[in-house]
Amino acid sequence: MVLADIGNTNIHIWEDGKTYNLKTPKKFARDIYYISVNEKKEKEFLKFNPHAVNLRKKVIFDTSYEGLGIDRIMACKTVNDGVVVDAGSAVTIDVMQNGVHLGGVIMPGIHAFKEAFGRISDRLDMNFCEIDFNKLPQNTCEAVSFGSIGAIVLMINYLKKNKKVYLTGGDGKFLSRFVDGIYIKDLVFRGMIQTIKELKD
Question: 99 is in which domain, residue-wise?
Fold first, then answer.
């Protein structure tokens, strides 16, 4: 079995427990299930894999949130109670309680913050540096890094209250340095696997 998570930048693949990224689609001869947040890439992917099954219409998920992305649904699917942070191009923070999705927020991703500063001024166009949230920044690099990463961390801490935090996504491991939480690289794929099991039961 192969799983595909078609994102805005890459196609994330799970195959026999191993994960990797594709920039362009390829053909798979095996059973394949997918989710997608990118309609153009999805159409390209289906040209190679017309037999692929879209889990969007198959998943059972309790939420009143309108328009919740399928990637967020799958990331939350295996968390009964907690806060789910998916840190990619954007950062999504979703709250789960007793298997019900209570709602969530969307913020710019870490790299989006960096790009925004570069558009404001050439002097702010710089790579983020090491920060210590116990000390006020003492230079511009620390200041933009503190403000960007700090905004995300502050929102996570505001929403989590006494709940556990589960982090995933390309910048999830990095963010886990600043947040008391559990980094799970394949959280979206775990949600997809659970959905497939429910379909077969």
Answer: 62-187
